[in-house]
Amino acid sequence: MYIYLTCSSNEIRILGLKYCSIEEKKLNVYEFAKKLPQLNELSVSYCAEISKDFLEAIGTCCPRITKLILCKWLHKNGEIDEDAFAIAKNMPQLTYLHLDGIKITNVGLLAILDGCPHLKWLHILVCPYLNLKGSLLQRCRQQIKYFHFD
What we know:
The chain is α/β, with parallel strands linked by helices. The chain is 35% helix and 19% strand. It has six helices and six strands. This is Putative leucine-rich repeat domain, L domain-containing protein.
């Protein structure tokens, strides 16, 4: 399916992946991402195999990406903050970020705030490793125009 998707058009601007199974060992995520140069919105929901490598590939190969929705619901695979660091390092043009069920701590959120200076919308839901208080909460409120934390 992913080969068909990326071969059908290199003009894809919005992509949503939900309840999918991407076996990254079989799929070269950089080759996949390279075929999406116009992508500016990506929504990934409940795809357990999506890793930091996928996020790095999208950020590197899709420089127009401005909106990311990432819902994982705390899958067992992956290290704490690895998704946050991949986003912070590779997606500096983000203006909208929605994180749901991501293994993120205050360190990961700080990396995102530093690495994504254009961020205007930030929605964080069900991220139990995050302890949003004090100066970090104040920074979010000052830096992000539309901030929601639950």
